Amino acid sequence: MSIARASIDRSLITWILMLTCLLGGIWGFATIGRLEDPAFTIKNAIVITQYPGASAEQVAREVSEPIESEIQKMGEIDFITSSNKPGVSRISVNIESTYDGSELPAIWTKLRNRVEDATRNLPSEAGRPIVNDTFGDVFGVFYAFTAPGFSDAEVHEISEYLRRELLAVEGVADVAVAGLPSEAIYVNARTSIITNLGVSPDAIAGALSQADTRTPAGSFRQNGQDIRIQAPVGSDTVDEIANLTIGVGGDVIDLLDFAEVERARVEEPTEIIRFQGKEAFTLGVAGKSDLNIVDVGKRVDARLGELMRDVPAGVELHPIYQQHLVVDEASNDFLLNLAMSVTIVVLVLAVFMGWRSAVVVGSTLLLTVVGTVFLMAIFGIEMERISLGALIIAMGMLVDNAIVVAEGMQGDMAAGKPSHDAAEDVASKTQIPLLGATVIGIMAFAGIGLSPDATGEFLFSLFAVIGISLLLSWVLAITATPLLGHYFFKVGSGEGHDPYAGPLFRAYRAVLSGALRVRYLVILALIGVTVVCYMGFAQVKQQFFPDSNTPLFYVHYKLPQGASIHRVSEDMAQVEAWLAERDDVVSVATFIGGGATRFMLTYAPEEALPTYGHLIIRTETLEQIPPLRADVEQFGRTALPEGEFRTERLAFGPGGGAPIEARFSGPDADVLRQLAQEAEEVMLGASDRLVDLRTNWRERELTLVPRFADERAKAAGVARDDLAQALQFGTDGVQVGVYREQDRLIPIIMRADSAGGDGAEHLSDLPVYSAAAQAYIPVAQITDGFGWEAQNTFLVRRDRVPTISVQAGVPAGENAASVFGQLRGAVEAMELPEGYALEWGGEYESSTEAQTALGKQLPVSLLIMVLISVLLFGKIRQPVIIWLLVPMSVNGVVIGLLGTGLPFSFTALLGLLSLSGMLIKNGIVLVEEIDLVRAEGVPFRQAVLDASTSRLRPVVLAAATTILGMIPLLWDAFFASMAVTIMGGLGFASVLTLVAAPVFYFSFFPKERKADAAASA
């Protein structure tokens, strides 16, 4: 008994299957995890090492080099980059994309061991390296809090209270706080008094460092019990610190006699955050990876609502990004798109096949979709942008199977055949071809879904969902569709019934008959159109991932190296004031000194630099972004000419960085800067469509260098370290201890009363303490003055080699790939000195890596697809006929994309793969039908015409329902290119299936044509 017949005879089992899909889908939709983007692992860790007092070159040579050398021994490393600034080494470790998230913990442990081994080779003055392997954590519920009028201590207390309470919310994994004001206890020493008194800096520092220490005081035994002795409580208020006494030469001196003690904000903070121009701090909430972010976000919102009633009045909460609302909206939009697509399918089927077929096929389609959601929930596949898109992509193929079975069954029943026999007859002819075609359709996406790189991980759910949905559609097509057809289709009398006697079928048969007569002209025409379209494909704009449909965009601003963070803050305040007057701006979040907390998986925060300013600007709609972006760029570049001012759209998918980037590597920093300057000139000469041309090394920075007089210093008993400490004492100050306030550790900084002023004139008069002479000596006595030097203060290395990157953007609306094509040859023609190399980064590198990884998988997928098609027929010519159609599938794609002006993005590539699967599937069913009709003894030419005519309605309906079902996606930024690709391509593919496939078939069997002609003569 066939499966289709059994589905009617044993209808209870079929009903159980259908109800399982329906009720399971409802359960799955209610419980399935929801995310904005697929969870792909950011295989990156950061190693930070402090090396106070060292220049950027010394940091690179003495700290980064030994650590990088040790890390590079790991076999899992893809590449290593380091940025070296005065006093700080920041090493970014990137793991090969072939390792998945489950392997990373072991890799990070191995990394820590390597870094620990490298520590032995670091200078004694260097701090202990800190490995941060949580760099890729995403805090998708991101809020700013403003608290005007509150003291810094109160702001810290409020933030800690909110963080502590939010960590207790079910499903919350972590809460990140940023932007809190940094405070210090400043001890401003009067240099004239300490010089006269001869108070040693070490004596002052020693007293301050012990002001609030935690020292064990021992214990004693009494009556068989150990009793701990509590150490004396330290100076835990600013007043108590000010009242400290210091012993000098047998005398006791009060700290207040020669210094003022104050609690104040750090004068050069590491970061400043504002929201709508008001000082703010941010809280980012990360949900646990296996939970529904919508539910977690709602619980966080509810808890915040309760907490805001308890915090002091005046504290305000402002959302910057709420991933759970974005995901919830995306899910609702998907349901709407799905409902529209199913409705369109049902209406089209009702018009062309009658309402009974519409109900049967529409019900099967709905069961397939909800059943897929059920299986997604079982297999732990979250509902996110890619998996939802996969359901839309699969929609065109999901309906095919049901249409073929329903159309064949309805025709047989109209001819008088009972439903059981009709189901068995149709299924026996189509179930294996449909299964083979379904598997081929799945394999078309295997290369992407199984690609080992970040793009493959990002798009794995696409392959999984398409595989599940297509296989389920086949199962339901040979079970649920026959049963529903049994209930809805009527058995006709069969007298004089010709299902293909209508005018549409007669017209198609006449056209096809004519095409067979002039088959060689048809083939030449198809080849000609294909060649023209492939030539036209070069005119289609290329894009890796499209811009996001979230109404956000960024401003990046950088002043030259050495600029104060306060100057950046003032410049950003001008932009904030300008934006505040715009009606199209909803909110502006300002980050100075570094990027924001990673609030999206695809958001890559910039490295912390005091010269960097960053704005996150939200608008009401996407349509408002282009004009606002153009206006803010014009304002920023005009009002702030000294800085680099650029904007950036939020994009989907993994990637990030400059759209165009050329990396030059080699041993000498000066040569690299010359190459970078030459490359900038070459790029500008090759293309006039470049903006924001820059290098990642930034500018050289002016540095003041004391000329140490060795002989005089040696005679005075002063070492170089003594001079350095004195200069730090006279400028930034020296941290000598910490002040404890609850869980906060506030630094105690000792400095000269002249510190903080403009200019360097006072430095020569600073006193330097000589331990040998036990007296202070002026800086001027042990130096030959000061000199200015332009130094590299931001050096980048890649795989241990100094590497400078020339980066550029393209104007809004321009295509990076086409601009890159203009300048690539000119840059590669540059003559590089021996030992220097050029590599391309940016969007070209990202797309090339993705396509390379895809290219490694596609041959296997294509081989499997070809083998399946050969095994289906057990012959060679039929599969060749089908595969000849595939290259022509690009024709409609080119016409559609050029007509709409949309780029060929990565999602369009997915649409092209989907299109290829549909085309092969239709081709298999058509060619198989021709073989079946021929097997019945029908003359060759008539068999081609009869079989093709019988496939007209399924092919046209499948194409029409798919094309019309894509309409809702035309307004989705992520899927628009894919929708046009499928719509334009499938329209042309239908012609290929209905005309080209029969013509090729007719041409590939010359013996049968001759025998047919002889028999009819």
Automatic annotation (TrEMBL):
The keyword rRNA processing does not apply. The keyword Membrane applies. The chain crosses the membrane at residues 12-30, 334-352, 359-380, 386-406, 432-452, 458-480, 518-537, 854-873, 955-976, 982-1002. InterPro entries: AcrB_DN_DC_subdom, Acrflvin-R. One of its GO terms (molecular function) is xenobiotic transmembrane transporter activity. Keywords: Membrane, Transmembrane, Transmembrane helix. GO terms for cellular component: plasma membrane. It comes from the Bacteria. This is Multidrug transporter AcrB. It comes from Roseovarius atlanticus.
